[in-house]
Amino acid sequence: MRQHQPTHQPTADDIAGLIARHAGTEGPLLPILHDIQDAFDHVPQMALPLIAEALNLTVAEVHGVMSFYHDFRKAPAGRLVVKICRAEACQSMGANALSEAVLGKLGLDWGGTTRDGGVTVEPVYCLGLCACAPAAMVGEKLIGRASADRLEAAMEGAA
């Protein structure tokens, strides 16, 4: 399970405070995005123009950086995050079929969250278990030689 649950919706003042922590530092965009996501479990759309203004960037530049890195979310994740590796080693060992099975059973697309807010499924591009492909992560638990049945059991165990 995730360690952090945001206590309230972010306000402009909340975002400004997180941005201010990086005033005068070199290359602050990624640290700011990480701080905002750590605080609110996602980077809300309303934060992008505030970040852009503070760093003298365009909103498009901030959005481009945010969308380039797969770890940044536009909406809060579910109570349980399931990550399935999409790297070549895992794909060669059945990750595509695994992904289709898990996403199909939950009725989700990549990055989607179940209606009850219980589970979010995200792609990742290496979990470091290439020799045990396909690899996945359920909450904080790494799973090598993952199958749909093993992931389902891990999800039930984490609930």
Automatic annotation (TrEMBL):
Work out whether the entry's keyword set contains Hydrolase. no
Cited CDD domains: TRX_Fd_NuoE_FDH_gamma
**Assigned keywords, A-Z:** 2Fe-2S, Iron, Iron-sulfur, Metal-binding
Pfam entry (one): 2Fe-2S_thioredx
What is its cofactor? [2Fe-2S] cluster
GO MF annotation list: 2 iron, 2 sulfur cluster binding; metal ion binding; oxidoreductase activity
Free-text remark on how the cofactor is bound: Binds 1 [2Fe-2S] cluster.
The source's domain of life comes to Bacteria
| Record carries keyword Oxidoreductase | no
Q: Where does [2Fe-2S] cluster bind?
A: 85, 90, 126, 130
InterPro entries listed in its UniProt record? NADP_DH_HndA-like, NuoE-like, NuoE_N, Thioredoxin-like_sf
Report which residue ranges the record marks as coiled coil: none
Family membership noted in the UniProt record: Belongs to the complex I 24 kDa subunit family.
Q: Name the NCBIfam families on file.
A: PRK05988.1
UniProt cross-references to PANTHER family, sorted A to Z: BIFURCATING [FEFE] HYDROGENASE GAMMA SUBUNIT (PTHR43342:SF1), NADH-QUINONE OXIDOREDUCTASE, E SUBUNIT (PTHR43342)
Q: What is this protein called?
A: Formate dehydrogenase subunit gamma
